[in-house]
Amino acid sequence: MMNKPWAESCDQNREPILEVIRPLFSESGSILEIGSGTGQHAVFFAQQLPHMQWHASDQSDYHAGISMWVEEAALPNVHGPFQLDVMQEDWPQIDIDAVFSANSAHIMDEKMVEAMFAGVGEILPHAGVFALYGPFNYDGSYTSESNARFDEWLKSRDPHSGIKSFEWLNSLARAAGMKLQDDVAMPANNRILVWVKDAE
């Protein structure tokens, strides 16, 4: 029997992320999480934000682990895992008003990131929020030595992955009908980028 998956980074970053998303999603009733990974974030945020319905999703390889977290927590407001590979044509048919994703863009290749932004733009309603957590580059530069080392490690595993440029991500968001609302500095040289659909 497999052990419940656990990532140290999820426990380290969950409180700082919660501080940002609690007010951000205060008006949101239903969230899609892209790339739920271990399932830790889904359960923690659903516990802390009981007014919201949290929908965990990922590629099928991760479903068994996510299910272990979801089933053990037995929360009424966490759902899934739903099958979602950002490259798939049909995304889960869920009525949502916000999207959250953590530590996903840098493990994707460029085509996958493009597909993610296009897909989010399609499923978000007017004034819907997309919050993306992770490390990003600005003006063609790393924001820290540790991010440069992390990027080198990512590319050694998969040459098509790596830390993405904020400017490029923002252009994808604009093309998908979203406007940047905030760029929040987080611990360990990470950020949360926040876009809003059809924002004036």
TrEMBL record:
The lineage of its organism: Bacteria, Pseudomonadati, Pseudomonadota, Gammaproteobacteria, sulfur-oxidizing symbionts. It holds the Pfam family DUF938. This is Methylase. InterPro entries: DUF938, SAM-dependent_MTases_sf. It comes from Solemya velum gill symbiont. Transmembrane segments: none annotated.
